[in-house]
Write a structure and sequence with these properties.
about 40% helix, 7 helices, single chain, 2 domains, alpha+beta, elongated, two-stranded antiparallel ribbon
């Protein structure tokens, strides 16, 4: 195999055979290189392989760049920085009070929530899950409190709709109040 010249020869001036040798040198198998019959796809492949060698892979970027954060980690940091609000989600029926504790994780080197039992409501924002136990007052970030407030308002808006007399009867399609008269 010939080495790539030090002074860059324009790829368009090279023959298909020379381009095949170059693409093999950049990492492609000889069998796959032989499948190319024209210059354009060969040149595009060579350009892509050259760029691939220059740019770091995503895995390397994650490992090397301390500033790299996933959506989940970004949301965790955002929630931890928000002001806290005291909320209480009441128990329903035979529910037992939820038990969630903060425990230091040696591997991640930070405090994390651990669920021990009872009723709870999970709030997941961009992949980060915040566990809110039912029963006791708990301190949660403002955004988590807003989500729980919206959920409770939505359930309160729909509660009792099954008992309204102006609802539609699914069998007849008429208001239930009309059949009661």
């Amino acid at each position: 195999m010939s080495k790539e010249p030090k002074t860059q020869v324009p790829l368009a001036t090279m023959t298909v055979k020379e381009l095949r040798k170059l693409v093999v040198k950049l990492g492609m198998s000889e069998e796959n290189a032989e499948l190319f019959e024209t210059k354009k796809p060969l040149i595009a492949t060579i350009d892509a392989l050259r760029v691939k060698k220059i740019v770091e892979t995503p895995g390397q970027i994650k490992r090397d760049d301390e500033k790299y954060l996933s959506k989940k980690e970004t949301m965790r940091k955002l929630l931890m920085a928000q002001p806290r609000v005291q909320i209480r989600i009441p128990l329903e029926g035979q529910d037992k009070p939820g038990v969630v504790k903060w425990v230091y994780n040696k591997r991640t080197k930070r405090e994390e929530q651990i669920y021990f039992g009872g009723a709870y409501t999970p709030v997941q924002l961009n992949g980060f899950k915040w566990i809110v136990p039912h029963g006791p007052y708990v301190s949660v970030p403002q955004q988590v409190a807003d989500v729980i407030g919206e959920q409770q308002n939505a359930s309160m808006d729909n509660s009792g709709n099954a008992f309204l007399t102006d609802r539609q009867d699914p069998k007849t399609g008429k208001p239930v109040g009309a059949t009661l008269e």
